[in-house]
Every structure is written in C-alpha cells, then in structure tokens.
Design brief:
Structural class of chain A: mainly beta
Helix content of chain A: under 10%
Helix content of chain B: under 10%
Order of helices and strands of chain B: EEEEEEEEEEE
Largest interface: A-B, 27 and 23 residues
Distance between the termini of chain B: 40 Å
Shape of chain A: globular
Number of strands of chain A: 9
Radius of gyration of chain A: 13 Å
Distance between the termini of chain A: 35 Å
Largest sheet of chain A: 6 strands, mixed
Largest sheet of chain B: 7 strands, mixed
Order of helices and strands of chain A: EEEEEEEEE
Strand content of chain B: over 45%
Structural class of chain B: mainly beta
Number of helices of chain B: 0
Oligomer: heterodimer
Number of helices of chain A: 0
C-alpha cells in the first residue's frame, strides 16, 4: 500500500494561513473519519496536532484545524508563526487494523 | 509524568535479529494500545505494527513490509512493550519510536518515546 500523497513543501509568511493536503483513496482517507496530523521538528519525536479529522488535543492552539473532502484531508495553519516551521505528516486508518502515513510536507516560514 | 523510553537499538548485519524494548510509566499500560512507528534517515514516518490491550483481545497487526519478520509483544507486569525483529534488511534501518494514545483516539498517537536507532549494515 502506497503512502498518502502530500506536497513536498509549502511556505508562507508570518501571519498568513497555509493549507497542507493529504490525498488517499476510498480505502483509507475517504473511507473513515480517522485522519491524524503530526508536527515534527528536526531531531524530535512527532507531536499530535489533529485527530479524527478535525479534533484538537487539549491545550493545542486553535490556529491548527483539520478537514476532509472526499479522499483528501487538509491541515490549515492560520496566523503562521516562526515556530510552526517543521515537517508535517498525515496518517489515516486504512482498514484491517492498519494505519498509513503520508510522505510528509516541509513547512517553511518565510 | 507520562513517559515512553525505548532501548535496544544498535548495529546489526543483514539477516540478523534485534529486540527493542519500550518502558512505559505515568499511565495504565495494561489498558493501552501500543504501536511502533519508524523513520528511515531523512525519510517520512512509517507505521510498523500495533498490539491491543488484553481486555480488547491483545491482537497484533503489522504493516506489509515487516509481516512475518517482526513480532510485537507486551509484558503488562513490567509495563514494557517489545519488538522482536528477525531477518533484518538494510531497508529496516530507521529510528524506531514507541507510541500510544491517551486522549487522541485509538487511531492517533499522542504519546511518543524519544526513539532508538537501528542500523542494518554489513
């Protein structure tokens, strides 16, 4: 099973909003409302940002939001800040008790 | 404090074996569904496997690339998760993270260890 498709990189200026897409199939992203998003800074473990498509963990900034349309999930970061610069990964339940990650997107804050 | 601490990584030759451990603390380990996620150098994250809690059946599931070679297990009396890796290939070289969910739903990971590096090379 191939990894979910994410853009290799996105960029934005401080204060702007950006959206990262995550495209799968009807067997994963489109078939379940079980997409999660992770932020990873260099040399660090990933951090959960969104789960079950659009839910934020307690204490996480509401600048981060998730959505889905068909086989594509999206992570939107509003009011971009320098500390948002990191790699972002989507992950979806893929049936038969398996999970699949996206290839990752490098976010650059200009 | 909720914590996962991996150990057991190292250098191993192709075809060799290695066992990773993950010591859990700060939460009820026996109730947790535990997973391993790996990341090859400079690459993205890859889900490896998962073991459910014994109350949920204790069943295991694996990603296709490791099925038949890797075995995930748990010892609830020791609050420890294991990953037995056999018939290792160079493409198994990666940082291996132990991870679980506490408040993020069963199919998301909100608790991560620091990772342990596994290098498969001759």
């Amino acid at each position: 099973q191939s990894a979910l498709t994410q853009p290799a990189s996105v960029s934005g200026s401080p204060g702007q909003s950006i959206t990262i897409s995550c495209t799968g199939t009807s067997s994963d992203v489109g078939g379940y409302n079980l997409v999660s998003w992770y932020q990873q800074h260099p040399g660090k473990a990933p951090k959960l940002m969104i789960y079950e498509g659009s839910k934020r963990p307690s204490g996480l900034s509401n600048r981060f939001s998730g959505s889905k349309s068909g086989n594509t999930a999206s992570l939107t970061i509003s009011g971009l800040q320098a500390e948002d610069e990191a790699d972002y990964y989507c992950c979806s339940y893929a049936g038969r008790n398996t999970l699949i990650f996206g290839g990752g997107t490098k976010l650059t804050v200009l | 404090e909720v914590q996962l601490v991996e150990s057991g990584g190292g250098l191993v030759k192709p075809g060799g074996s290695l066992r990773l451990s993950c010591a859990a603390s700060g939460f009820t380990f026996s109730n947790a569904w535990m997973s391993w996620v790996r990341q090859a150098p400079g690459k993205g994250l890859e889900w490896v496997d998962r073991i459910k809690s014994k109350t949920d059946g204790g069943t295991t599931d694996y990603a296709a690339p490791v099925k038949g070679r890797f075995t995930i297990s748990r010892d609830d009396s020791k609050n420890t998760l294991y990953l037995q890796m056999n018939s290792l290939k160079t493409e198994d070289t990666a940082v291996y993270y132990c991870t679980t969910n506490m408040k993020g739903g069963r199919n998301a990971f909100d608790i991560w260890g620091q990772g342990t590096m596994v290098t498969v090379s001759s």
